[in-house]
Amino acid sequence: MSRGGAIASTLVGLSTALGNALVSETIARKPGLLQSLDPRVKLTGLLALVLAAALSHRIGVILALWLGATVLGLLSRVSLPTLATRVWLAVLLFTGVIALPALFLTPGTPVLSSPDGKLHITEQGIVAATLLITRVETAATLTTLLALTTPWMQILKSLRSFGVPQEFVMMLNMTHRYIFVLAESASQMLESRNSRTVGILSSAAQRAIVARTAGVLMGKSIELGNDVYLAMQSRAFRGDTKLLTGFRMTSRDFLALSGFLLIAMIAIWLGRA
Prior knowledge:
The chain is mainly alpha-helical.
């Protein structure tokens, strides 16, 4: 194996994660339809549409919600390539593997059979697999739009506004913030190790380097967690998420919230089995 095999792939993965986070923050600060709404409206409205997609039993209704989510993304300055690479392709590969057995295991009218006649793809299996994939694609698109168009701290404050426990919100906050700090530290450590390596390393040697780096990173994360905790305590932090700007609902926000909820209720009614 080449010298950069495992180490290079790890560096690429960490760089990609950091780049995606930067892209998300950039999109959240663009002028767009969702960006102009109150975060509480986006959280309530988009999650209501996710619930509607999950409860609907008709593929046409779910596809209509997916198409609406795509249009909403375009109006919010989220490009189709971004949605395709970050949501649609990944979800299709993951959900497709899960939905594949349904083609053969769901009893019903055979559409295609194997030469020996032991395996059958049924019409009902195709419908079940398509229903699962469209549901997950729609839900993933809607939740991704929420994450891309809303700064993370505003999402957390919105959760607190709806009574989500403070401990849970702070856990999300610290996890989101320091996972990127640790990812950057890991990237710097691996890059430093790679720049000091001469010659071609075997696969076992590369895996050992990555394993040792993970161990050192764990020690750093524990030390960093203790330091951060003491620093927060010394600054009188008591667990609540604070923002310099408060939330204020306008007539546009109330109209948007009413539209989200109305569409969700219509989709649930039309999507009944």
